[in-house]
Specification:
- Strands 1, 2, 3, 4, 5, 6, 7, 8 and 9 form a nine-stranded mixed sheet that branches.
- By secondary structure, the protein is an alpha+beta fold.
- The relative contact order is 0.26.
- It starts with 7 loop residues before the first strand and ends in a 5-residue tail after the last helix.
- The longest helix has 13 residues, at 70-82.
- The chain is globular, with a radius of gyration of 15 Å.
- It has five helices and nine strands.
- It has one domain (8-163): Nucleoside Triphosphate Pyrophosphohydrolase (Alpha-Beta Complex), CATH 3.90.79.
- Strand 4 and strand 5 (56-58) form a beta hairpin.
């Protein structure tokens, strides 16, 4: 598939096609719904996690489990990846992505994902890292301002920061 209009293309050829105003309920029922991502802020800083397998900094989130709503997915993922049971979680919209073949699928496909903004209490990276339950996947944390132009960052995830000001 070729798309002339898209928001961002990442290092792997995946495209962020749009961020749409689809309700959480409608998203959760859509057969193309697969995952949720969260843009996380601590004070005025964006927080990113280093993914062990992709070796780059990313937003937080992951795949929805069978029967899980988008809200349930992001709450569970943030509990695993950030160690927070309840946070200030704001639904920002639905991401429509064109994804290249990868670990999850051998074919190119369109997927929908929930995009959320989360504000954590003002605390140090060390304190947040100490709360993480899934240290097998998240091997480090950093504030975007400290790693921008210095460390590898997932390009689509970096673009998603613009949606939670």
């Amino acid at each position: 598939m070729e798309y002339a209009n898209y928001i961002c293309k990442d290092q792997d050829g995946n495209l962020l096609l749009s961020v749409e105003n689809i309700s959480e309920e409608e998203l959760s029922q859509d057969p193309s719904f697969t995952h949720c991502l969260a843009v996380v802020k601590v004070g005025d800083e964006y927080l990113l996690g280093k993914n062990k397998w992709r070796q780059r900094y990313e937003t937080f989130g992951g795949c929805a489990e069978k029967g899980e709503s988008s809200r349930d997915c992001i709450v569970r993922e943030c509990n695993e990846e950030l160690g927070f049971d309840s946070s200030d979680i704001t639904y920002l919209g639905t991401m429509r992505l064109l994804l290249k073949p990868d670990y999850f699928s051998k074919t190119e496909r369109i997927e929908l994902g929930g995009l959320y903004g989360i504000t954590l209490p003002d605390m140090s990276i060390d304190t947040i890292y100490g709360r993480i339950k899934d240290k097998d996947e998240i091997t480090g944390l950093a504030f975007y301002s400290q790693i921008r132009d210095r460390e590898p960052i997932a390009l689509i995830d970096e673009k998603l920061l613009d949606y939670y000001l």
